[in-house]
Write a structure and sequence with these properties.
The protein is an all-beta fold. A hairpin with a 2-residue loop joins strand 9 and strand 10.
C-alpha cells in the first residue's frame, strides 16, 4: 500500500502551474468551496434571495450605512427592511456608475445624472446654463461704452451654474441697460452679471426672480466677480465616474477613434467642467476609474493607466472587464481590480493571480470585499465570456 501524504494546509486554486510540480496542496478545481486563511477547505455558504425586484447596478457608501440600486427604471434606496424606496426616475436603462463626494452620492449612466444627499434628497447634477438675454438701451446714467451681460443659476444649496452666452450692447450718454428674457429655473435664483464700460471683467449686478431688470452700470456699482464663465455641466455621454483629490472625473468612450476622454471638474466643484482644457485621453473604452490615493487608476478595454494630476503612465498592456471591476481593501486602502489577466492590486501595481489562476475574464464583472466570521474575502462575480490567458500556453 502506498504511503498516504497528509495535507496540513491547502494553498488554493492553481490551474496554471505544471501539475506535477505545484504539489498536492494546490487545487486544480475549487468549485463551491472556500479555502480559509489557515488553509482549511470549507463548503461555500449559500444565500437566500430577499429582494425579488430585478436590480441592475448597486452602490454602498463608504461607511456601509446606505445602499442604492437601480430597479424598474428608478434609483432606489435599500431600506434596512430591504424594501426599495424610489428616489429618482430614470430615462435610460444603460449601466449605472456611482461616486461618493463627502456624504453625497453621484450617479451617471450617460443619459441620467444626479446627486443624492445624506437624507436621500435628489438634486440634478447638471444644472444647465441660462439662455442669452435680450438687451436694449433705455434712459439712465451709465458710463458710455460697450457692455456685456451674462447670467447664471444659483441653487438653494449654493451651487452656481456655468454662465450662459454673453450679450453685448453699446450705450451713449444718458442711457442704461434694459435686460429682458432672463431665464428662471425651479428651486434656483438667477444672477445677472455685467461688465463695466469697455471691460471684459463681469461683476454681479443683481439677483432676480423676474425675467427682466434695468441696470445703471458704473464701476463701483458691481459686486463679486463672475467665476463660472466658460464652465459647463458634466459632458453629455459620460458614464464612468470617480471623485479624486477634490475633482470629479467622468469618462466617455468615442467609438470612432476607439479612445476615451476623461474630463475632470473644477476643484471642489463637481458640477462644473471646462470641456476645452480639462481632460485626458486614453486608448480603448473606459470601464474603470478608481481612487488609489496617490493616483487615479484608469482601466480600459486595452490597458490600465495611472494619472497623478501631472502625468499619465501605463501600468499594464491589458485592460479590465466592464461593469464594476474593482473594490477597495478596507485595511490597506489599495485598489483590487478584475482584469483580463486576473486580480491585480495597486498601487504599486501587481498582478496577484497571473502565475496561479487562469479563467475567462467574463463580459461583465462585479467586485466587493466581504468581511465575515473573521475572514476577509474578495468576491468577484462574472457574466460568462471572454478568453482566459495562460502565459504557459
Amino acid at each position: 500500500m502506498a504511503d498516504k501524504k497528509l495535507v496540513s494546509a491547502w494553498k488554493g486554486l492553481n490551474n496554471v502551474g505544471e501539475y506535477t510540480r505545484v504539489g498536492i496542496e494546490s487545487l486544480a478545481v475549487a468549485d463551491n468551496v472556500d479555502v480559509t486563511d489557515t488553509g482549511r477547505i470549507e463548503t461555500r455558504e449559500g444565500f437566500t434571495r430577499r429582494i425579488t425586484s430585478p436590480m441592475t447596478g448597486g452602490f454602498s457608501t463608504k461607511d456601509h450605512q446606505r445602499a442604492y440600486v437601480v430597479s424598474a427604471g428608478w434609483v432606489c434606496r435599500v431600506a434596512p427592511s430591504l424594501q426599495l424606496i424610489q428616489i429618482s426616475q430614470l430615462t435610460g436603462n444603460q449601466r449605472m456608475h456611482w461616486a461618493q463626494v463627502n456624504n453625497d452620492v453621484y450617479f451617471s449612466n450617460g443619459v441620467d445624472y444626479g446627486r443624492i444627499s445624506e437624507d436621500d434628497a435628489f438634486t440634478p447634477w447638471a444644472l444647465g446654463v441660462p439662455s442669452p438675454v435680450v438687451l436694449a438701451a433705455v434712459q439712465g446714467n451709465s458710463t458710455p461704452g460697450r457692455y456685456q451681460v451674462a447670467c447664471t443659476y444659483v441653487m438653494a444649496d449654493g451651487r452656481e451654474s456655468g454662465a450662459g452666452p454673453a450679450q453685448t450692447i453699446t450705450l451713449t450718454d444718458g442711457q442704461a441697460i434694459a435686460i429682458s428674457g432672463i431665464s428662471q429655473k425651479a428651486e434656483a435664483s438667477t444672477r445677472v452679471y455685467v461688465t463695466p464700460a469697455d471691460s471684459s471683467v463681469f461683476g454681479l449686478a443683481g439677483v432676480t426672480a423676474s425675467t427682466s431688470m434695468t441696470v445703471n452700470v458704473n464701476p463701483d456699482d458691481l459686486g463679486e466677480a463672475l467665476q463660472t464663465q466658460f464652465l459647463y455641466d458634466i459632458p453629455e455621454g459620460c458614464t464612468v465616474i470617480e471623485h479624486f483629490k477634490g475633482r470629479m472625473y467622468a469618462g466617455m468612450y468615442m467609438p470612432s477613434s476607439n479612445a476615451s476622454f476623461i474630463w475632470y471638474s473644477r476643484p471642489m466643484q463637481p458640477h462644473l467642467f471646462d470641456e476645452a482644457e480639462d481632460f485626458i485621453a486614453v486608448p480603448g473604452q473606459v470601464h474603470m476609474l478608481a481612487d488609489a490615493g496617490e493616483a487615479l487608476l484608469i482601466g480600459t478595454s486595452q490597458g490600465i493607466h495611472a494619472y497623478n494630476e501631472e502625468s499619465l503612465s501605463e501600468l499594464a498592456p491589458y485592460g479590465v472587464t466592464s461593469g464594476w471591476p474593482f473594490a477597495i481593501d478596507p485595511d490597506t486602502k489599495k485598489v483590487l481590480m478584475w482584469t483580463q489577466r486576473g486580480i491585480c492590486r495597486g498601487l504599486p501595481f501587481e498582478n496577484l493571480t497571473q502565475n496561479t489562476v487562469s479563467v475567462p475574464p467574463g463580459m461583465q464583472a462585479g467586485m466587493a470585499v466581504i468581511q465575515r466570521d473573521g475572514d476577509k474575502r474578495l468576491i468577484t462575480t462574472l457574466v460568462d465570456g471572454g478568453n482566459s490567458f495562460n502565459q504557459r500556453l
